[in-house]
Amino acid sequence: MTTTPRQRLETLGIALPQAASPVANYVAAVRTGQLLVVSGQLPLVEGRLSAIGKLGATVSVEAGADAARRCMVNVLAQLDAALGGDLSRVKRVVRLGGFIACTPDFTQHATVMNGASDLAVAVFGEQGRHARSTIGVPSLPLDAPVEVEGLFEIEGE
């Protein structure tokens, strides 16, 4: 029996939050053809950041990976909203982009971003395996430690 992304989320104990509204002059998601791009999401939980600061300074690698996972939950919430609540329309997670606010000597970006990547695979199975970029940056909005964006291939209209 095949499980759906929604069932996998339930098994993981994840309830998707309401998709956050954009805070500037952009939209949360854009669809062109069969591709849907979700704008960068922060690790917000009930409107508050789950962690604040930089990797390599005040945020541990473990807390950074958890923040990346929370970002991915918010990416999924945006995706769910854009698809009218039907995550089964996702044919493939094409790419995830991760931005890690960190000190200049920090080198464990990939480990941090695995928090998001592992969740994509847990929710979408083999279709969740994706290309990825992970980039260290000096700062992110609200002093968030991580931001994650996504590109998805979608079925149907």
How would you describe what is shown here?
The two termini are 26 Å apart. The strands form two sheets. A five-stranded mixed beta sheet has the order 1-2-7-5-6. The chain has a two-stranded antiparallel ribbon with strand order 3-4. The protein is globular and about 45 Å long. The chain has a single domain, classed as 60s Ribosomal Protein L30, Chain: A (2-Layer Sandwich), CATH 3.30.1330.40. The model has no long low-confidence stretch (mean pLDDT 96). The chain is of the alpha+beta class and 157 residues long. The chain has three helices and seven strands. Helix content is 29%, strand content 27%. Residues 8-144 form the Endoribonuclease L-PSP/chorismate mutase-like domain. This is RidA family protein. InterPro entries: Endoribo_LPSP/chorism_mut-like (IPR013813), RutC-like_sf (IPR035959).
Describe the secondary structure blueprint for this structure:
Elements (H helix, E strand, L loop, with lengths): L4 H7 L17 E4 L2 E7 L2 E2 L2 E2 L11 H22 L7 E12 L7 H16 L6 E7 L8 E9 L3
Parallel strand pairs: 5-6
Antiparallel strand pairs: 1-2, 2-7, 3-4, 5-7
Helix pairs in contact: 2-3
For the largest beta sheet, what order do the strands appear in spatially? 1-2-7-5-6
CATH architecture: 2-Layer Sandwich
State the fourth-level CATH superfamily.
Answer: RutC-like
CATH class: Alpha Beta
Report the major sheet: 5 strands, mixed
Order of helices and strands: HEEEEHEHEE
- Average pLDDT works out at 96
Structural class: alpha+beta
Tally of discrete structural domains: 1
Indicate the radius of gyration in whole angstroms: 15 Å
CATH fold field value: 60s Ribosomal Protein L30, Chain: A
Report how far the terminal alpha carbons are from each other.
26 Å
Can you tell me the residue ranges where pLDDT is under 50 for at least 5 consecutive residues?
none
How many strand elements?
7
Pfam family, one: YjgF_endoribonc
Organism: Endosaccharibacter trunci
Domain Endoribonuclease L-PSP/chorismate mutase-like: 8-144
Protein name: RidA family protein
